[in-house]
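Late entry, evening session. Most of the bench is empty. Finally got around to the prediction I had been postponing all week. Sequence below, unchanged from the version circulated by S.P.
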Amino acid sequence: METSSLIIAISVAVVALALVALIIFLITVLVSLKRTLDSTQEICQDVEGKLQAFDPLFRIAGRASVRLERKSKRFKHYVEEEEEEDDPALNTAFEAAEWALIGLSLWRKIRARRG
């Protein structure tokens, strides 16, 4: 009986050590995770602050895009369809203006979703 109780005592000690090791590992992981989250939060706040610095510029660009859109619509009324197809420079200018408006529209949607 002496050997079986010795084996049980050793087994209990091994389980206890394994449990202590697991607890230490979990504490280490949680501390590391906390540091990572704090660091990520600082980075997000920094990026948000820098993006807010550009808000006036984007508001100006948004107003300019609305004006540009109005003027391009007026200009399209004056230009005949045949001239638009024959003039590649005019088509390129219209495409560039449309892409700029699409980009600003996407930027507004992204900003609206963020808050």
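Two things to note before I forget:
The radius of gyration is 33 Å.
The chain has two domains: 1-42, 54-115.
Will write this up properly tomorrow.
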